[in-house]
Amino acid sequence: MNLRVLTLVCLLLPMVLFAQKKEKPAVLIYGSDITALSAAIQSARSNVPTVLVMDKPILAEEITTEVLKIESNNNLDGGIWMGILMEMAMSKNRDDSLAQTVKLDFNPRLARNSIDKFINQLPNLTILKDKSVSKINKGRKKWEVTLSDNQKFDVISVIDASESAALLKTSGLNLDSAARLNFTPASEMSLELSRTTLAVGDLNQTVNVVFLQDILNSEKDNFFDIGRLRNIPINAESIPFRSAFGQAIGATAAYSAFFKTTTKSIDIRKLQSELLTYKARLIPYQDVKINDVHLNAIQKCFLTGFFLGIESDNKYVFNKSGIVRFDDIKDVLNDIYTRSQLWFLDNYRNDDLTWKDLMGLIRFVSFKGDEVEKQIIKDWSTKLKFEGEYNQENKVTREQFAVVTDLFSTAFAKAINLDGSFVK
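RE: above sequence
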């Protein structure tokens, strides 16, 4: 190598090394299974430098070492888990039927390849294999974590996703009472709490829901433990639910780290929007496909809490063709919009809602004119993908109501409290 080339290399090398240097992690996740992996991927996707400290040598061992047959979570797959399934199927489009096919003959080699591709696309995710934590202390602002090989990390948020709760035990925190609780079946949740949903999934052939409070019950000072998730048997059928939970807890820990705040300051709507951005499925409805043209609108409608689903043929469904009644939306809209109260005083009926009613309500609340109705008529079968023809006297279905409110209202943006009530 001549002197000129050597000089050039010496000048460029520090610049290359500087460009490759990673930011210090702000979130540390301890664990190795699908829950830990999903939490780490979501945290890194949320633009937070993240380190996954594996307590075992194999990442996501339950899906990367043997052929599986997963029959659960029919029409409930979403988020990172659905991304893994679609990558295994080499499909760019998400599809519930294809997901079920992949799950019934789940190939571990394809799963490993899919996970590797996810990780390679996340430069701010660091993975350390087969490590243990020797010490963890809460500093003035951060958690100070020391590994068995003396590596040290100062992070804002910590997640213990280990099967043995080893990190929690080392921390000395007492979060045992929350760990004994169970998750809530969708058929038993309240309308208010449904607004705080962060994950859904199938447990023992029943659709269950994870609320923000479920995660915060096992959290203190930005130390997040998976808590009650350890009550769930570790088997093939629980994998989709555990991945969805991991994505939810990963997003929550990343929120605290990104905004350098505590969980007391979490804006639930921002947290849900982050999960929706990364295609998390936050609706427990099994009659709404992942590729449904109205999926996003129906998700926001559910999270706004206009109405709950119903049980039908052992499934929890949205009932898209169900007719909306005045009583379904009156109290919710009155909580969100002051002007809504005035409109209902003059127009309320114990009856079904017609398009004439809905147009009048939107015009009154949003200070809009006839342009709303003209736009709906124009876009009825094209952009809105509604069947039939527009008629003022026709009754409004749940699906139609979800789409129109998403277009012409700010209901989903209304801030909510931890109990699901609207912030006044």
